[in-house]
Design brief:
mainly alpha
C-alpha cells in the first residue's frame, strides 16, 4: 500500500504542475507550451477550475508529507468541488464525444482515492502518526 501512496504523490504532483501551468495561461497572454485549458471553457469557469485543482493538489501533498490527520476530509472537500466543476463543464461547455466517459472515469478515480484514504488501514495509520 506504501507504493499506492507514492503513486498518489506522483499524481498530485502532476496535477499541481498542470494546474500551475493552467493558471499561468490565464495570467499571461502567451505561454511557451501548447495550452492545457479547454478552449470551450470561458474564463469564468477556468478560474475556479484551476483554483480547485491547485487546492486539492497542494492540500494532498502537504497532508501526505506532514502526515496531517485531516487530509482525507480535506480531499473529500477538494474532490467534491472538482466533481461539481466537472459536471458543470461536461454538461455546459464540453463538446468532445467522449465527455461522459471522461467524467465517469474522473468520478471513479476520486471515489477510489477517497475510499483508500478513509478505509485503508495503511492510510488511516499514516495520517494519524
Amino acid at each position: 500500500m506504501q507504493y499506492i501512496g507514492y503513486l498518489l504523490v506522483l499524481i498530485h504532483a502532476a496535477l499541481l504542475l498542470w494546474a500551475s501551468s493552467g493558471a499561468l495561461e490565464l495570467l499571461l497572454p502567451n505561454v511557451p507550451w501548447k495550452r492545457f485549458s479547454n478552449p470551450d471553457f470561458p474564463t469564468y469557469i477556468l478560474i475556479p477550475h484551476w483554483s480547485v485543482v491547485l487546492y486539492a493538489s497542494i492540500g494532498f501533498l502537504y497532508g501526505y508529507f506532514t502526515h496531517w490527520s485531516k487530509t482525507p476530509q480535506f480531499m473529500l472537500i477538494g474532490y467534491s468541488f472538482m466533481m461539481l466543476l466537472c459536471v458543470i463543464e461536461t454538461f455546459g461547455y464540453m463538446t468532445s464525444k467522449t465527455k461522459y466517459i471522461a467524467m465517469g472515469t474522473e468520478f471513479v478515480t476520486y471515489v477510489v482515492i477517497l475510499y483508500l484514504l478513509f478505509k485503508s488501514r495503511y492510510f488511516i495509520e499514516y495520517f494519524n502518526r
